[in-house]
Structure formats: structure tokens, C-alpha cells
Amino acid sequence: MKVPLPAHFDLADADAYARWREEKLARHPRRLEELMVELRDPRRITAVEREAILRACARANMAVYAGACGADPDKDIPRRLAAAIGLRRLDANYLADDDGITPLAVAQAGTRSGYIPYTNRGIRWHTDGYYNEFGREIRGMVLHCVMSASAGGENRLLDHEIAYILLRDRDPEFIAALMANDAMTIPARIEDVGGASREQGPRAAGMRPPASAAEPPTARGSII
Q1: Contact at 8 Å (CB) between 212 and 6?
Q2: Cα torsion at 55, 4, 174, 155 (round to 10°)?
């Protein structure tokens, strides 16, 4: 099912964009503390905690939570938290575990070791999941930290709607180009298995319109 494009993302509706832009910038957080949500138990968040997470996401498309689970590696922690905020259909990407969750740690050998997220190297700005084909769009993610890196590991996060505003204000044609179905392609990974070629990972896809705040409660998501 195709999600209708909100009026403020329609390049032909300048008035709707101007109204949305003004409201978006007026309520956007200015301090990290405005995005922080303390969770007593991420496995069983309360109605108040859930509302705080959703309120932060509505303002900045993200929330930063802190729980009391310590270094507990139980995958049920992020899974149940994700389900509580509407992410119930996990995207089983190429390198995810059988349960659909993607554990990120340095891999010394194997297939994962060939990908930057599984090394101790830094990664530049990127958007996860943008290469998925239509019908498998990523509408939300949970990044759950079990153990902090001994050195490095810092993250910088950007509200994609702020990036949209900056690009559209500079030149609406940037938006038109980036939202074309063939704007970005990624070649499939080809591996030689027993003398036969096997295709893995994404083949090609275009960028998607920004997700609206009115996504269905069972939107597809990813847990890392």
C-alpha cells in the first residue's frame, strides 16, 4: 500500500510547506535533554514513558532513552520496547540474526567482517534502509546500546525533516531529484559459492518520501 504524500512534501504546494516549516522549526528541540526519556524498565514501559517517547519523535523524529538494564544482552529488551511504540514487523536484513535483530560488534572473521559497521572504523553520514524496495520501506529504528565502546563509538543524529528543509530552501529541484525512484542504486553483492554465483543483499532502489508522523502502528522497523 502506497502511503499518500503529505501536502507539505508536495513541491507544488508552497503554502502547505511554509506553514509546516514554520511549525516544525518553532517546536524543534534546542537541547539534547529535550529528547531524553528515562525508562524504569524498557521491557515494560509505562503509558507516560511511551507518550514521552512518541512526543519526542513527533518533534524531532527521534528520542534518546536510558534504562536500568545495564549490560544485559537480552534481545527481548529492545524487541519489547520496539513493539510498545509500534515497531512490530522487523526488517530481516542480509546480516541480521535469525530473529531479525542486527547485533553490531567487531567481527574478526566471516561475512560480517567485510562491512564497516562490524569493524572499529568510523562511518560517515548515512541513512539506514534507504535501499529497500517499495513495500519494505524502513519507517523506524531502535538503536539499543548494551555496552559502550572502550574508545570512540559516538553517534551524531540528524532529523531527516531538517535536512529536507535545508535542501528544499536551497533548491526544490534537489528534492525532486532525490525522490526519483531511480535516484540511488546499490549493486547486489555477488559471492562465489561452490563455483556458482549467489546474489545477496539489495539490488537497487530509489529514495523514499520522508515518513510522516501518521504511520500505521505496525510500521516496519529495524532493531540494532
Answers
A1: yes
A2: 30
Cell numbers linked to 117: 559497521
| pLDDT tens sequence across 23-80 | 999 999 999 999 999 999 999 999 999 999 999 999 999 999 999 888 899 999 999 9
Pairing of strands 196-200, 189-193: antiparallel
For 116-217, list the strands marked E by DSSP.
140-142, 189-193, 196-200
What are the grid coordinates assigned to 132, written together? 529497500
Q: Nearest to residue 133, comparing CAs of 83, 201, 214?
A: 201
Query: What is the C-alpha separation between 182 and 185, in angstroms, rounded?
Result: 7
10 has pLDDT over 70: yes
By CB atoms closer than 10 A (0-12, 13-18, 19+), residue 161 is buried
Q: Given its phi and psi angles, is residue 141 left (phi above 0), alpha (psi -120 to 50 degrees) or beta?
A: beta
Q: Are strands 89-90 and 220-223 parallel, antiparallel or unpaired?
A: parallel
